[in-house]
Amino acid sequence: MILYLHCADGVSGDMLAAALCDLCCAAGLDGERIVAEALTATGIDETAARFSLVRRGGLAARSFVVDDRPGPATFSELEATVARSSLPAAVQDRVNAAARRMAAAEATAHGDDHAELHELAGLDTIVDLVAVGSLVEALAPDVVMASPPALGGGWIDSSHGRLAVPAPAVVAMLRGVPTAGGDEPQVGELTTPTGAALLTVLADRYGPWPAGSIVQSGVGAGSRETPGRANVLRAALIDAGVPVADDPAAAVDHLLMLETSIDDLSAEYLADAAERLRAAGARDVWLTPVLMKKGRAAVTLHVLAEEAAAGRCVDLMFEHTSTFGVRRTRVDRLRLDERQETVTVEGRPVRVRLGLRRGRVLTASPEYEDCRRAGEALGLAPRSVFERAQGAARAALDASAGSPEGLSGSD
Fold first, then answer.
1. Number of domains within the chain
2. Is 331 among the domain residues?
3. Which residue from 3, 131, 264, 280 has the least number of CB within 10 angstroms?
4. Could you give the residue ranges of the DSSP H alpha helices within 304-364?
5. Domain boundary at 335, 359, 389, which?
């Protein structure tokens, strides 16, 4: 299951918490109770934070408001509070990772260790981190994806003085992460330091809405009414493995999609792994560039295989790449019916792969090796043979009005 975060109006800690709570409630989980129990486990009064239903830009949404109370004054104090808690280890890890990311960004942006949280020292910072970490743990997605966050524009007042949006710490945290840009003076800050820290810790990769079936969705409201924007963050659970509706006009292959994202293996070894996977019976193997958490450039290795070959393919992915995990999704592939016929080009046979739908030929693709061999014998470029064979096949099809019998052609 994919957790997708749509950050067209930016991202903040309270928006994330509200959207994830709303999503939990839609999925049959008590999001508000999850957060209340997490706060209690951290030693924070659960009544200091509350959810409510609101409207933003005409959209129904859930908001998350934390009382204006003091919280940990330093990053180390925040981590110590988390260490004393009874939160699950995975939640503690997320909270600490986000806090350390904020600390590192402050040091990068302002030139010292910046141990103090300054304007982030309110109770809302630790509450947002704990709430988001706990809600993600409850949803237990296989992958977290996010859209490039909007940044906003204008100015903000901080303990470092008046700063242009996006704030330097936000820029430092989003280094290597795609963004939707900013320079909108009238909207102010859309992506906050807490939001940027959480997003970069949670997201495995960034991009548009992934293909699949939307299982449930939730909407989290920002604290401000923003002119020209809804000022909401949407979260959705997407099942990428739900088969499409049956198409009686198409053949259907029931396959497994095996995927893993890798950022520490050279291209030569990836190419070798791909060849081994094809030899093991994979129907298709390909690589796509992705951006992983903390802005690391990487590639995703995709393998499409029948179930009988999937186990061997998984073994090869573990043996011949550096991955620690492989995602597995059931997929249905719709394909054209296929037939192979032979035409001749100046007396040389060339096999042609035909793709049919509802009995009508839609594509004719000559086999490359036949084109190469014919080209060598005739003194022609393989591409020239390809085009002439394709033309001969289409002419023969036109002459026979699509009849499957007796297809032959000459040039």
1. 3
2. yes
3. 264
4. 307-320
5. 335
C-beta atoms surrounding 404 within 10 Å: 13
The answer to whether residues 94 and 41 belong to one domain is: yes
Q: Could you tell me which residues are beta bridge partners of residue 236?
A: 4, 217
Burial class (CB in 10 A: 0-12, 13-18, 19+), 211: exposed
| 33 plus 173 within the same structural domain | yes
* Angle of CA points 49, 202, 146, to nearest 5°: 100
Among 314, 335, 356, which residue terminates a domain?
335
Residue 265 belongs to what domain range? 251-335
Please tell me what DSSP assigns to residue 362.
Answer: E
Q: In this structure, what CATH number is given to the domain that contains residue 354? A: 3.10.20.300
Average pLDDT over residues 362-385: 94
pLDDT of residue 274: 95
CATH code of the domain in which 300 resides: 3.30.70.1380
CA neighbours within 13 Å on the CB side: how many for 111? Answer: 1
Which two structure tokens, joined as six digits, stand for 384?
Answer: 């020239």
Both 299 and 185 in one domain: the answer is no
With 0.85 as the threshold, say if the pTM is over it.
no
Distances (CA, A) of 60 to 52, 57, 375, 398: 11, 9, 65, 57
344 shares a domain with 327: no
Q: Find, among 139, 133, 16, the residue nearest to 82 by Cα.
A: 133
Show the DSSP H helices in 218-293 as ranges: 267-279
User: Taken in order 20, 21, 24, 25, is the CA torsion positive or negative?
Assistant: negative
Q: How far apart are CA 134 and CA 21, in angstroms?
A: 10
User: What residues contact 81, with CB distance under 8 A and at least 6 apart?
Assistant: 42, 43, 72, 126
Q: 1-13 pLDDT, tens per residue?
A: 899 999 999 999 9
pLDDT band (50, 70, 90) for residue 405: very low
349 shares its domain with 306: no
Q: pLDDT at residue 45 above 90?
A: yes
Radius of gyration of the chain (CA): 28
Flag whether 246 is in a domain.
no
